[in-house]
Specification:
single chain; 151 residues; Rossmann fold; two-stranded antiparallel sheet; 7 helices; 7 strands; 44% helix
Length: 151
């Protein structure tokens, strides 16, 4: 892709990428999630990671490897690259259960521990309650609006 990416500010945009963004970006090269992954690759977006989130990425991608048309080796390489491009945080506290879907609590806990301003996901309803921690829930399209893309 020959996109040139500019930030509106000098900093990288740090966000927690929910697993559905990673899946969607690998499933189709046509959508905003794919562009978010390209922004990660270009070091414009910095994914914030935890061990639990990385295991979730691995589990979902490997369970769906045939649907995605990628091998386990491809998945391992992708996850290695995401680890190289992201930053890891340890979570020392738990507020469980807090969210409507308890499986998403670790994502919110990561956002709070890393002090990011937002979680990027398609499932905003699953993160009701995150606002009490000053964590905004945004879609991939909203994340891309923070980035100026020039073709």
């Amino acid at each position: 892709m020959n996109n040139i990416i500019y930030l509106e500010r000098a900093d990288k945009i740090r966000t927690v990428l929910d697993t559905n963004i990673l899946f969607a970006g690998l499933y189709s090269a046509q959508g905003a999630s794919f562009q978010v992954l390209q922004a990660v690759k270009s070091k414009v977006v910095e994914p914030v990671l935890s061990v639990a989130l990385l295991f979730e990425y691995e589990d979902v991608l490997k369970r769906n490897s045939e649907k995605l048309g990628i091998t386990y080796e491809d998945i391992e390489l992708l996850l290695d690259n995401i680890c190289d491009l992201g930053s890891f945080y340890k979570i020392h506290y738990l507020w469980r259960p807090l969210l409507p879907d308890p499986k998403d609590d670790h994502v919110l806990e990561l956002a709070v521990a890393s002090q990011v301003k937002h979680i990027t996901t398609f499932n905003a309803k699953d993160f009701k309650g995150s606002e009490q921690f000053d964590v905004n829930i945004i879609t991939p399209k909203q994340l891309l609006e923070k980035i100026k893309w020039e073709h």
